[in-house]
């Protein structure tokens, strides 16, 4: 979740980098943010929309949620365009979500959404954040519907793939694996078209695990071996470890404990070699 939020903050920074209002001051703040110098970014001058919004980003990165909320709300008041206001309101909602004030976040995002009108890119971003908040509130069916709304507004395969992947995740959390498979298949095809090998591999491994949960063992094996091969051929050691871990679960379900342990051992070795702490934690729970 945090990675998605960080990506959105980067996206929004790029989106507004062409705004000429107080350009020199904002460039300095943006440079500090991009260099992860958040404390220094907060030392820059704050006065108009862009600098105030920049301070909000820095405070959010530092998990200083109250300060970030004040900055984004003030930025909204200082905004001189609908786009500036939409972005400020969106970041208020994201900050509330990151602060674990989930009911407040959902209410704020839905209220702000009503003001967007015909701005399709922002409508999609709002639907995504509403969906992510609903997931955290364990409202998985509603989350799936929100991600489908986002999908309907997607402008390219990157966006379509990401939205479909979250629809699949929501259905998988509901243990509706037939629906999860349906949407992950679509997501995987879209990821393939984007040429983003990491996302394509991640989606494919998830698809294999959904097949496993649905007890479709033939599809599980075919899918996981396909993405193991992709990872080996393209040097994707992180995804190779994940594919091997998924295969370990598959062989365990088939009662082949020896091969299951062998796959897990190889996955653990790779995770240790590349220092993937998240994978090491995941594998320990198996």
Could you describe the 3D structure shown?
The protein is mainly α. It has two domains: 1-118, Tetratricopeptide repeat domain (Serine Threonine Protein Phosphatase 5, Tetratricopeptide repeat, Alpha Horseshoe); 172-286, Tetratricopeptide repeat domain (Serine Threonine Protein Phosphatase 5, Tetratricopeptide repeat, Alpha Horseshoe), CATH 1.25.40. Helices cover 80% and strands 0% of the residues. The protein is built from 16 helices and no strands. It has helices at 2-15, 23-34, 38-41, 49-61, 65-78, 82-98, 102-113, 120-136, 140-152, 157-173, 177-194, 197-213, 217-234, 237-253, 257-274, 277-284. Helix 5 runs antiparallel to helix 6 and helix 15 (257-274) packs antiparallel against helix 16 (277-284). The longest helix has 18 residues, at 177-194. The radius of gyration is 21 Å and the shape is globular. The model is unreliable at 18-26 (pLDDT under 50).
Topology of this structure?
Blueprint: H1 2-15, H2 23-34, H3 38-41, H4 49-61, H5 65-78, H6 82-98, H7 102-113, H8 120-136, H9 140-152, H10 157-173, H11 177-194, H12 197-213, H13 217-234, H14 237-253, H15 257-274, H16 277-284
Helix pairs in contact: 2-4, 4-5, 5-6, 6-7, 6-8, 7-8, 8-9, 9-10, 10-11, 11-12, 12-13, 12-14, 13-14, 14-15, 15-16
